[in-house]
Here is the input.
Amino acid sequence: MSADALELPLDVAVTRPILEQIANKWTVLILSVLCTQPARFNDLKRRLDGITHKALSDALKRLERNGLISRRILPTQPVGVEYTITALGASLREPFAALYSWSLANGTKLAEAQRAYDESRRHMGFEDEI
Here is the structure.
């Protein structure tokens, strides 16, 4: 390991439950949207292409339970709900932005590695596993 590499103790018992709450695709994307401004449910659903109603609802409940977002009932007809990122949720902005930037910069490399892996598995006769 290089001298400037960050050395962290691997405390799985402590970090795993936390990472399970924050390190999934919808959490990262929802908090990234809410970092810029509060949003209503349907606005979030429109901006998060591919998320189902249930997945968004479940994720928002989990994020609220974990103190990463807050929920405010709007005095509209019909009643609306607006979600806002909390200070705790906003503290994830920098690491999520880094992860997002890394994804943009390395997505092509990942796709190339996947193709190469799949091709090597095909040549070895493992088509069923691809």
